[in-house]
Design a protein that fits this description.
Elements (H helix, E strand, L loop, with lengths): L1 H8 L13 H11 L4 H14 L1 H4 L5 H7 L19 H7 L7 H24 L7 H23 L2 E3 L8 E3 L1 H15 L14 H19 L9 H16 L23 E5 L10 H4 L25 H11 L4 H4 L4 E2 L8 E3 L8 E4 L1 E2 L1 E3 L1 E2 L2 E2 L8 E5 L12 E2 L17 E3 L18 E5 H16 L2 H12 L16 H12 L5 H7 L24 H6 L14
Antiparallel strand pairs: 1-2, 3-14, 4-6, 5-11, 6-13, 7-12, 8-11, 9-10
Helix pairs in contact: 3-7, 3-8, 7-8, 8-9, 8-10, 9-10, 10-11, 10-15, 11-15, 15-16, 15-17
Length: 558
């Protein structure tokens, strides 16, 4: 008992794991005593398994670790003070993170909460007689595998626990991969084909299995040089083929619909964080990068941006080098979508007003805001749009996003850096910090095609088949403008293409490590320490297991 309680301390906030081996019986007694039916109890057990996802995907948890640690995002001290947070975003970007970093700790805790809730649900659902219990049980096991995959990617370990009274086993390398794979394979036959994307389906399991095999070489030995086995690449092709051949999913003609408020029904989404406003959504992915005086919602003047991260000049130049003299906003429909005319003192209908999407550069135009309200035009109905002023600065300078952004005083200015508005700002976001309606994506069809392309390149250098998959994705985005097909493909070009397709979708760190680029230099980052490929285990977790000698060891280099 004492040993079990100490182990459970590692899983901060997961009270369900602290207790005796008869907790299964107590769970059932509690819901029966409360008068719940088996159906109500089953529904109540599976819901928390998914409910932790929005916390994991917050801007200061998984996004910070997966994006700000890369060339796709940089977050300086804005104005010398804002977003300082004791330098944690600077150190994260420079690969100097320590075991006391709160973002690392919060991500660890949130992912472990997902594992804990899954274990609790599994133990209860095994004893539940509702017809849905078998499906829910499969989903809970599959989500436990997903959470462990995230843990393996970020921290180099996974947790195996079957019964609430069992001692948690720590798995690394091949053992962790085998465990995660076996769980997904066991539940795949039971999973539904029709409850997604907010719940795990067969296709979701196939997508996770493809991702597992694609990254297996790195996850077996995160510090070595990845050797991608042919059998792993064959499995990537097998599982991606299953999804593509199911004909259940389709590439979205409008790239921005994939990240829109109504994207829950978009056929490109396979597995996603359900953020419809009536559920537990948040709006951090929409407001995080926007300028403070960018106010997207005519109905809510208080909803604004926070002057957070920007893309690095290094990442922007990858677009420039790809398209040469042609502006990437013209050459690639994934770069930018203009919704606001670049004119001063225009009048707009508030019912149809939308801000620009994608990578935001230069002078920003939007609703004119003064004294707590938007300025109306002479007709009293329409609103005035013009150049946005930065009310934080002396003399109200214009909000002009520059390519230059770094940790210097000039590079940390409130306007510095090209910003990203990929996910649509929720129409119901009264404060700008809640009610994000756009589902956040875990697996989508474009990733399936590009994973298959990568597997074919890595196994046999089948450039023709890989190029067909890459161009299938590129040429599908036809709603606003069409991209031109690539004429050739190799691994470097494929990584560049993944950057264009999936920027700020929480994949960049994993991609850079797999492609052997995580030790490269980019804006404000030159550290080549391979130990930084995985994050430190939070000191709080190690302290919680301090009396269990050798149980939880810190990762190398921390």
């Amino acid at each position: 008992m004492k040993k079990f309680r100490n182990i459970a301390m590692i899983m901060v906030g997961m009270t369900a794991l602290v207790g005796c081996s008869d907790l299964n019986e107590k769970v059932l007694d509690e819901y029966n005593a409360a008068g719940l039916t088996d159906k109500q109890a089953a529904d109540g057990m599976i819901a928390p398994v998914y409910a932790v996802l929005p916390t994991i995907f917050q801007h200061t948890t998984l996004f910070a670790l997966q994006e700000i640690s890369t060339d796709e995002a940089i977050l300086p001290y804005r104005g010398g003070t804002d977003w300082g947070d004791n330098g944690i975003y600077l150190s994260l970007h420079k690969h100097e993170t320590t075991s006391t970093d709160p973002n690392v700790r919060n991500t660890w805790n949130a992912v472990l909460a997902g594992i804990s809730r899954s274990v609790t649900a599994i133990n209860s659902l095994k004893l539940n007689s509702d017809p849905n219990a078998k499906l829910y049980l499969a989903e809970a096991r599959g989500m436990r595998a997903y959470y462990n995959m995230v843990m393996l990617d970020l921290f180099g370990l996974a947790f195996s626990k079957e019964d609430l009274g069992d001692v948690t086993s720590i798995l690394r390398g091949e053992a962790a991969i085998t465990y995660i794979k076996s769980e997904l394979l066991d539940v795949e036959p039971v999973l539904s084909t029709s409850v997604g994307p907010g719940r795990l389906t067969k296709a979701g399991a196939w997508g996770l299995l493809a991702r597992l095999h694609l990254n297996a070489a790195v996850w077996r030995d995160p510090y070595g040089t990845a050797t991608h086995k042919a059998e792993d690449m064959d499995k990537v092709v097998e599982y991606t083929d299953k999804i593509i051949n199911s004909s259940q999913y389709a590439l979205s003609a409008d790239y921005w619909d994939i990240f829109g408020n109504a994207n829950h029904t978009n056929k490109e989404l396979i597995l996603a964080v359900d953020q419809r406003a009536e559920l537990n959504g948040h709006n951090r992915m929409s407001y995080f990068s926007l300028a403070n005086d960018q106010r997207p919602l005519p109905a809510y003047p208080a909803a604004n941006g926070t002057d957070g991260p920007a893309i690095t000049p290094t990442f922007y130049q990858s677009w420039v080098s790809a398209y040469g003299s042609v502006d990437p906003a013209v050459a690639d429909p994934r770069f930018f979508k203009q919704n606001v005319k670049k004119e001063d003192n225009q009048c707009v209908d508030p019912a149809t007003y939308k801000i620009d999407r994608g990578i935001l550069r230069g002078q920003q135009y939007g609703l004119i805001y003064k004294s707590g309200a938007f300025v109306k035009c002479a007709d009293g109905k329409s609103l005035q749009v013009g150049k946005i002023l930065n009310s934080r600065g002396k003399g109200n300078p214009l909000v002009i996003h520059t390519e230059k952004v770094d940790f210097t005083t000039e590079g940390s200015d409130y306007s510095s850096g090209y910003r990203v508005e990929k996910y649509e700002f929720s129409d119901k976001s009264a404060s700008g910090r809640n009610f994000g309606e756009a589902d956040l994506i875990i697996v989508r069809l474009a990733d399936v095609y590009l994973m298959r392309a990568e597997a074919k390149l890595r196994k046999s250098n089948d450039a023709a088949a890989a190029l067909a998959d890459v161009n299938k994705v590129r040429l599908s985005r036809t709603a606003n403008s069409a991209a031109t097909p690539l004429s050739t493909i190799n691994l470097d070009l494929l990584l560049r293409e993944r950057g264009f397709e999936f920027y700020w979708e929480l994949q960049r760190r994993t991609d850079l490590i797999r492609f052997g680029k995580y030790e490269d230099s980019w804006t404000e980052k030159s550290n080549t320490n391979k130990n930084m490929r995985v994050f430190p285990i939070p000191q709080t977790a190690i302290d919680g297991a301090s009396n269990l000698t050798g149980y939880l060891k810190q990762n190398a280099g921390y």
